[in-house]
Amino acid sequence: MNSRIFQVVQYFILLSISLWLCLSFFNTLDFAGLKTKISSGNFSWFYVVMFVSLMVYIFRTLRWQMLIRSIGYETKFHNAFAALSISYFVSFVVPRLGEVTRCLSVKKQHNIPFLQLLGTVIIERVIDILSLMVLLIITLILQFDKIVEFIKENVFLPFYDKIVLKIIGGNTKVLFFVIIVLVLVIALFLYFRKYLRERSPRFLVRLVESLKEGITSVSKLKQKKLFIVYTFLIWVCYYLMTYFWFFVFEETSVLSFGACLSILTIGTIGRSVPIQGGGMGAYHFLVTSVVVLYGLSEEWGKALSTLIHAGQTFFTFVMGLVGLLIFFVSYWRKQAK
Questions:
Q1: Rounded to whole angstroms, what are the CA distances from 31 to 36, 299, 302, 313?
Q2: DSSP conformational letter for 161
Q3: SS3 for 27?
Q4: Distances in Å between the alpha carbon of 56 and those of 52, 105, 134, 180, 283?
Q5: Which of 76-85, 163-172, 230-239, 262-271 is predicted least confidently?
Q6: DSSP state of 298
Q7: Which backbone phi and psi does 145 adopt, to 5 degrees?
Q8: How far, in Å, are 46, 146, 219, 337 from residue 61 at the CA level?
Q9: What is the rounded CA–CA span in Å between residue 234 and residue 226?
Q10: How many domains does the chain have?
């Protein structure tokens, strides 16, 4: 019961943050100007982006099949593809629930132990994080000045101006707010410690053993080079998914490869924030700030970030529905046999 209450509270906290970020962003958005910009765009590039997005799903499915195969099970491509599509759809609404949904979908079709499937999903997430770290390092090396300027303008200066100076100046409201935040952080930390201690040791042993088997599945891969190739192609597609959007507008087509690299890196961090809507709000703010750093106006930054996020949202929903259709058709056929 405590776990369910915590999950409900967590969901509404994340939803509140998402709504606040969205309202903060869209309240300053000139919708009339955005409509004019979009009406002048060359949306033949939309189909190119959708094709590349589909390739990401295909490469991810093939890579996940390799991990599942390494723990001794086989999956049909269309079932794994459907599970992946559904998981992105679910995660858009409820962050992190998609991973569970993905494992349950495949378990339903192939009767593979849930915890072992979860282990393969976790190793995927670990690989994604490591890949993002590599991408961040590459971006720092190639776009060092821009990244430093971004951190200065969007992290240090706002923190100094809006918090430090006001506390020094005797603003008790800001000081009180900071104290409340610190107390909440400490309380959450203590709660999680207590929560983990109260979990069943037997369940934890089973969980750790199953997750370990899934995580160590990488060492059992028969085609490690192919696994690395799939991972590389996934990130190449992510890059192209961002880069091709530039050519929708003549004004944004001047953005360089380096600008795309920065937008991809910072934008991915924004999408990784566990809030509803695929990092909605956070993604818009971060991408807009990066676009401004590369010489375009804030209006064009908002237009581009809104367009990219809306396009991927559309694709996520369409593929989610496709995934559900494949899942139910496959399940009904299985039941009919």
A1: 9, 10, 10, 19
A2: I
A3: coil
A4: 7, 20, 19, 42, 20
A5: 163-172
A6: H
A7: -60, -45
A8: 23, 35, 19, 26
A9: 12
A10: 1
Q: Provide the pLDDT confidence category of residue 79 given band limits of 50, 70 and 90.
A: very high
State which residues form the domain around 326.
Answer: 2-332
Q: What is the DSSP letter of 251?
A: T
Residue 78, token pair as written in the block: 């269309």
pTM given for the model: 0.78
Tokens of residue 14, six digits: 């994340």
pLDDT digits (tens, 9 = 90+) for 107-166: 988 888 888 888 888 888 888 888 988 998 998 888 888 877 777 766 655 554 555 555
| Burial label, 189 (beta-carbon count in 10 A; 0-12, 13-18, 19+) | exposed
3-state secondary structure of 73: coil
Amino acid at site 95? P
Task: State the residue for tokens 């004019």.
Answer: 36
Question: Using CA atoms, how far apart are residues 269 and 136, in angstroms rounded to an integer?
Answer: 10
Give pLDDT tens digits for 215-254: 565 667 778 899 999 999 999 999 999 999 999 998 999 9
Q: Is residue 45 part of a domain?
A: yes
Q: Is residue 337 part of a domain?
A: no
